[in-house]
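can u do me a favor
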């Protein structure tokens, strides 16, 4: 009986901490969205933080990520086109490539890439700010950390993710044309017809909504995890690990929900 009581107590405490973490995440995310939609939020100070976040999250990695996206896209396009020809489905190869690569794979890979590179860094930075009482010091100095530190990072992260997804999608479309039609302009009419068939308004709306959701997740979850970290130094890596696991889970939920709404 003592063992069972101890086990139930530990499980109950773990469940409460898990619920408390998701509650804090939801409240922070809702507050960040409200702030971002408030016109008075934007001034020179917040714009400066947004620009820095875009620079470190998107612009700095653009050459490397562009090369990676191009290589991945080229390999996948070649595989899809060659296999479609083997099975006599050449007419559907281009459409299949666009649906799989541009609508699903590249947005998810971009979000994961940004999460691993910038999300973990943001989580660590905010956790250390919390542990070292820097956030409390900002509040005591009359500076709202939500407005001047966290929300600009969220906005910059969202813009970065959307921009990288757009860039990688354009690269994939150009490569798809070159693989299927080569350097000839004769296939442009068929290519635009397939684009019009795939990127209908509903599909475009879903892609934009998913990209925004990915951008919101890769910034809100790391910041929230850092803010909820206990104020002890050895909890910083634990906070980062928990934040990354939660972020991966949310990204997968967004992708599964997108697939379900689009194809089921």
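np, heres the sequence
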């Amino acid at each position: 009986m003592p063992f069972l009581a101890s086990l139930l107590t530990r499980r109950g405490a773990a469940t409460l901490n898990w619920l408390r973490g998701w509650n804090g995440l939801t409240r922070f995310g809702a507050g960040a969205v409200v702030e971002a939609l408030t016109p008075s939020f934007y001034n020179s100070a917040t714009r400066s933080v947004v620009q820095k976040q875009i620079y470190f999250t998107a612009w700095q990695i653009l050459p490397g990520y562009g090369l990676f996206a191009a290589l991945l896209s080229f390999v996948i396009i070649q595989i899809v086109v060659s296999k479609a020809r083997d099975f006599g489905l050449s007419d559907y190869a281009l459409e299949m490539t666009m649906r799989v690569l541009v609508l699903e794979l590249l947005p998810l890979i971009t979000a994961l890439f940004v999460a691993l590179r910038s999300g973990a860094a943001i989580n660590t930075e905010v956790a250390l700010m919390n542990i070292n009482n820097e956030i409390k010091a900002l509040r005591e100095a009359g500076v709202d950390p939500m407005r001047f530190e966290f929300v600009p990072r969220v906005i910059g992260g969202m813009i970065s993710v959307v921009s990288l997804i757009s860039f990688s999608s354009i690269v994939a479309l150009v490569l798809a044309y070159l693989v299927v039609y080569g350097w000839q302009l004769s296939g442009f009419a068929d290519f635009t017809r397939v684009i019009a068939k795939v990127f209908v308004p509903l599909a475009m709306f879903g892609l934009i909504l998913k990209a925004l959701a990915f951008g919101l997740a890769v910034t809100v979850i790391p910041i929230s995890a850092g803010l909820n970290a206990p104020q002890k130094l050895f909890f910083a890596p634990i906070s980062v690990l928990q934040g990354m696991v939660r972020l991966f889970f949310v990204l997968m939920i967004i992708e599964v929900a997108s697939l379900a709404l689009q194809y089921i």
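The CA atoms of residues 62 and 107 lie 15 Å apart. hope that helps!!
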